[in-house]
């Protein structure tokens, strides 16, 4: 189990269905904003660490705050497949925290 104080997981080790993920990554690019039917903003961002890259789905205002080049720590995230692509999400009670640039 990956608890809050566990060392971060490498992107290469992320598999669909994993929960409570702690991952540190750099933001490579921010995707365009799409709106859900109920008015939420969703951005798909390309992020990477030294082992690989992955897409992360970022919802609402936090998506407008992150920039390419930011170093981000995701806590309590989870991974699943979206349109054939392995994608990271912020879980319930999870957070994205900028820790550097």
Characterize the structure shown.
One of its GO terms (biological process) is response to ionizing radiation. It is found in: Nucleus. This is SOSS complex subunit B2. Belongs to the SOSS-B family. SOSS-B2 subfamily. Residues 17-96 form the Single-stranded DNA binding protein Ssb-like OB fold domain. The chain is mainly beta. It has a single domain (11-100), classed as Nucleic acid-binding proteins (OB fold (Dihydrolipoamide Acetyltransferase, E2P), Beta Barrel). It has one helix at residues 61-65; strands at 21-35, 41-49, 52-59, 71-82, 85-100. Strands 1-2-3-5-4 form a five-stranded mixed β-barrel. A hairpin with a 5-residue loop joins strand 1 and strand 2. The protein is globular and about 35 Å long. The chain starts with 20 loop residues before the first strand and ends with a strand. The mean pLDDT is 90.
Topology, pairings included?
Elements: E1 21-35, E2 41-49, E3 52-59, H1 61-65, E4 71-82, E5 85-100
Parallel strand pairs: 3-5
Antiparallel strand pairs: 1-2, 1-4, 2-3, 4-5
Shape: globular
Q: What's the CATH class label?
A: Mainly Beta
With strands numbered from the N-terminus, the spatial order across the biggest sheet is 1-2-3-5-4
Radius of gyration: 13 Å
> What is the chain-wise order of helices and strands?
EEEHEE
What is the strand content?
over 45%
- Low-pLDDT segments, ≥5 res: none
- Structural class from helices and strands? mainly beta
Distance between the termini: 29 Å
Strand segment count: 5
Number of DSSP helical runs: 1
Mean pLDDT: 90
What's the architecture in CATH terms? Beta Barrel
The CATH homologous superfamily: Nucleic acid-binding proteins
What is the CATH topology assignment? Answer: OB fold (Dihydrolipoamide Acetyltransferase, E2P)
User: Percentage of helical residues?
Assistant: under 10%
User: What's the number of structural domains?
Assistant: 1
């Amino acid at each position: 189990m990956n608890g809050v104080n566990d060392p971060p997981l490498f992107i290469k080790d992320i598999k669909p269905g994993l929960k409570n993920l702690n991952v540190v990554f750099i933001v490579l690019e921010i995707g365009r904003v799409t709106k859900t039917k109920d008015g939420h903003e969703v951005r798909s961002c390309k992020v990477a660490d030294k082992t690989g890259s992955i897409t992360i789905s970022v919802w609402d205002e936090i998506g407008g705050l992150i920039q390419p080049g930011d170093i981000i720590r995701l806590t309590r995230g989870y991974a699943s497949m979206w349109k054939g692509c392995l994608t990271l999400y912020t879980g319930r009670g999870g957070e994205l925290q900028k820790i550097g640039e």
